[in-house]
């Protein structure tokens, strides 16, 4: 396979991953009457079951012993699991409570928050245009806080939880494949899922076996719905440049926003569109800087390899 064919294949994988994530509002809406935390608990359990079956079929389980021998890495995987479970829970709550537009805003803000965390935690130095993008994003957050009459809590929690998750994954490195990582994260937070289901069961609020076989099958499908787009994303990330992934990622919140307004009947006041517009301006600035930086790095690398070019 040529590099061009590999890149095209990776782009298709990435497009499919973000397309599936963009369709999640419709999927989670179909899971009613299950509540957000029941859905999260089932996502954890059935994702672990699916990943475990695949790993067993591949006879790929020895890495668990290695993970257990490294407490710091195990703790990192556990924290990553908690962060992604929090993200899942808040997102599902947003869908089921009619706040999909606020959830979409969170994923628009995510790249800006990721850059900001890189400065604060990793002490990364930003280029001037990156600072401009972060500044516009901060102004948008302030504007939306005034417009909402409160901080956009759902948006901020989604943005910071996923950005923190991404940052932690970056710190953990590439020592674990996407499948192993997802299995490890699900395994470490399995007790949380069990406690949630036991608590809901005591309150008589579980729906798994109460609302018919169709509903049961839908909850069982949460494992596939969680794992498939993540594995597609991992396949894309190994085949295409980061700049391509950066551009594709905006597909998800765009689809979420369109779904909320066109299919789920949510309304967005004109004043709030102004806030979204500020976020989009910040993303255009950030994306343009990223693309230009990648092109410049390629030219520099090409010149070093072939000075006569």
TrEMBL record:
List the lineage, top down.
Bacteria, Bacillati, Actinomycetota, Actinomycetes, Micrococcales
Which residue windows are transmembrane per the record? 12-31, 43-61, 73-91, 103-122, 129-146, 152-170, 182-202, 214-235, 247-265, 271-292
- Could you list this entry's UniProt keywords, alphabetically sorted: Cell membrane, Membrane, Transmembrane, Transmembrane helix, Transport
Can the keyword Membrane be found in this entry's annotation?
Answer: yes
Predominant location of this chain? membrane
Task: Report if keyword Transmembrane is assigned.
Answer: yes
Q: What is this protein called?
A: EamA family transporter RarD
Protein localization: Cell membrane
Q: Which PANTHER family match?
A: ACYL-MALONYL CONDENSING ENZYME-RELATED, SOLUTE CARRIER FAMILY 35 MEMBER G2-RELATED
Q: Matching InterPro entries, A to Z?
A: EamA_dom (IPR000620), EmrE-like (IPR037185), RarD (IPR004626)
Q: Can you give the residue ranges of the EamA domain?
A: 10-144, 156-287
Membrane topology designation: Multi-pass membrane protein
Q: Which family does it belong to?
A: Belongs to the EamA transporter family.
GO CC terms in record: plasma membrane
